[in-house]
């Protein structure tokens, strides 16, 4: 199997993928154990099994957005980026959500059409403790996914 060239989400994100896969298949009447869904997520990312994937990424802690100037990488509207954190604001003490201002190293083209482009270099977003936005793109993917 060939591993995906994309950076991997954190362990919690991979487990969420497995839960969503299991729920989607269940809606279609297909029974799938949670462990089998973990194995399928590992295969999707090019790993032999879940244990191999888990060992590869290890236990990463929760995203710590409280550092101005921190370096982050991830995906914005499905496009990879590396950025600096220019602003941080906690959105309520109990919500676990933060407003971040990100300055991309290279502008990100947010349009998928070949005949048109629109580049963004600075964005503001609200992320949870896993570094993902609640807001989603039309394909169900978070608008911002931060990786570390």
Question: What this model shows, in words?
Answer:
The chain is an alpha+beta fold and 148 residues long. Helices cover 24% and strands 29% of the residues. It has helices at residues 11-27, 34-44, 50-57, and strands spanning 71-76, 79-90, 98-109, 119-127, 144-147. A five-stranded antiparallel beta sheet has the order 4-3-2-1-5, with no helix packed on it. Helix 1 packs across helix 2 (34-44). The chain is globular, with a radius of gyration of 17 Å. The mean pLDDT is 84.
Share of helix, binned = 10-25%
Radius of gyration, in angstroms, nearest whole number: 17 Å
What structural category characterises the helix and strand content? alpha+beta
Distance between the termini: 24 Å
Which terms summarize this structure?
148 residues, alpha+beta, five-stranded antiparallel beta sheet, 5 strands, globular
Concise summary:
The protein has three helices and five strands, in the order αααβββββ.
Topology:
Blueprint: H1 11-27, H2 34-44, H3 50-57, E1 71-76, E2 79-90, E3 98-109, E4 119-127, E5 144-147
Helix pairs in contact: 1-2
């Amino acid at each position: 199997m060939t591993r995906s060239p994309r950076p991997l989400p954190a362990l919690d994100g991979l487990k969420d993928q497995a839960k969503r896969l299991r729920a989607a298949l269940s809606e279609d009447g297909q029974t799938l154990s949670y462990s089998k869904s973990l194995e399928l997520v590992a295969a999707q990312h090019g790993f032999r099994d879940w244990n191999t994937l888990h060992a590869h990424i290890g236990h990463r802690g929760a995203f710590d957005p409280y550092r101005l100037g921190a370096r982050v990488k991830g995906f914005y509207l499905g496009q990879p980026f590396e950025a600096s954190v220019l602003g941080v604001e906690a959105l309520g003490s109990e919500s676990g959500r933060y407003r971040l201002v990100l300055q991309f190293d290279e502008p990100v083209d947010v349009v998928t059409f070949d005949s048109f482009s629109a580049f963004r270099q600075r964005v503001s977003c609200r992320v949870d403790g896993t570094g993902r936005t609640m807001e989603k793109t039309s394909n169900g993917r978070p608008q911002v996914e931060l990786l570390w």
